[in-house]
Every structure is written in structure tokens, then in C-alpha cells.
Amino acid sequence: MTYNEIKECAAFLQLKGITKPSIGIVLGTGLGSLVSKVDVELSIPYGDIPGFPESTVESHKGHLIYGQLNQVKVLMMQGRFHYYEGYNMQQITFPIRVMKELGIKKLLLSNAAGGMNPKFKKGDLVLLTDHINMQPDNPLKGMNDPAFGNRFVDMSCPYNIELNNTIIAAANELYIQLHQGIYVSVVGPNLETRAEYRYLRSMGADMVGMSTVPEVIVANQVGIPCAAISVITDECDPDNLHPVNIEDIIAVAEKADVKLCELFTKTISNLI
After folding, report:
1. What DSSP state is assigned to residue 84?
2. In the chain, helix, strand, coil percent, each to 5?
3. How far apart are CA 245 and CA 248, in angstroms?
4. Three-class SS of residue 253?
5. Is the pTM of this model over 0.70?
6. Has residue 58 got a pLDDT over 70?
7. Measured by CB atoms within 10 angstroms of the end CB, which terminus of the chain is less buried, N or C?
8. Sign of the CA dihedral running 11, 16, 19, 24
9. Torsional class of 83: left (φ above 0), alpha (ψ -120 to 50), beta (otherwise)
10. Distance (Å, rounded) from C-alpha 127 to C-alpha 172?
């Protein structure tokens, strides 16, 4: 990937009519009802966008949505890309760099995750305060052109405190219970064994998923304040572990998505 490819993609989207988006949003597995709150001006399939991979995961619609939400111009990824799909880290995070080129000021991300903290139950929302990266590659590898940003990115505070506080305030206004926790990102796509859940929990992680961290690394490199919320879709107690399947995970995520939609909508309103 070159910086010219990023600029060319941004120019393509600008010609389509995407101008001055303020907030970027990445919607994870089973999380898409926020689109219904947007006054949509454009919906572009990923396959029609230069440089974008195509989403291969069920429940990831694979569209870039541009429009207005509470008088704010938003650019929304209706589905993301994952390392387990066979894409490299540069491909996975390409849209974040394009969003930066288009001018977004803040980034909100969501994901579905397994809850390892015994306090977390199915359908709970958890605000990420930190993460552990167990992905086998890094989106900054080889990206030594200064145009991409500082190569040695400081990650002492990957999730913007001010933005997190805005989300907490919005949750309080809406009387939505919002936990806080540490997310660990693994490759997948298989779920974890009992021993792996014990190991990940012993590391200090509260929930586990297969995304988000690469995008957050790049957001920090290019200077976009970001925040992320996990929807707990299964309870990962190794002493009381039950089989789950993707249909169950999507069903829980879709049910909890109502709360997430309200929370993101209120947060964006409070950012005006």
C-alpha cells in the first residue's frame, strides 16, 4: 500500500459526494441498526471502492455509508475486515487511513466479544479502556513513509479519555449500564478452548475478540481520537463453558445493538 493509493481512494469518494465527514464509525458483527438513524446520502459497496477489500463474513453488510446523524456528517463502515479472512493488516486498516484523508476528527468502533470477566453477561456493553494485541502481525510493519505518520506510535493511551468520558456521560443520561474493560484481540476464526480462556483471563483481559486493535493502532498513528465498545455475545467461563455458534452470537449482538445504537447516537449528539 502506498500513500498515493490512499489519496486516490479518498479522491474517488469525494467525487462520489463524500465531503467533510466529521465522525468515522466501524460497526462489528451483528451491529448495524445505527444505519437506520442516519439520513443516508450515499451507500457504496466495498467492492466498488478502489483499494477496499470485500467483506466475507456473514452479518457484515460490506457497505460504506455516508450521511447525517444528529446534524453531524458521519462516514460509517457497515462491516469490517479481519485477519482471519486472509487479508493483511494494511488491507484491514486501509479504510481508517482513507477516513483520515477525508478529514474525520473522531472514530467510534464496535465489536462482538466473548466475556471472560464473570461480571459480564450476554448483551452487556463494555467500553474499552485498554487492549492486549495477540494478532500475529502489525499494520505498521513496513509503513516507513513519513506520510503515514510516526512509525513508533505511542500506545500508552490508545482509547481517548475525553471521548470515553463523553460515552460514559451519554450512557448515564440514557440509563444504559456500561461496563469498562480490557479487550484482547486474537486471530480466530475459531473460538477459544477452556485453557485459552484461562490463559487470556490471567493476562488481565476482560473480553476477547478478533478485530478492532489493528484499526486502533492505525488511528493512533494518524492522530484520530478513538473509542470502542464491545457487545458481550457469549459468556466464557472455562469452568462452565457451553458450545456456541455464530448464529447465537449474531442473535445476541443484534438484540444488544438497540442499546448500542442509542448510545452512539447520544454520544454523537453530545459531540456537537
Report:
1. G
2. 35, 25, 40
3. 5
4. helix
5. yes
6. no
7. C
8. negative
9. alpha
10. 13
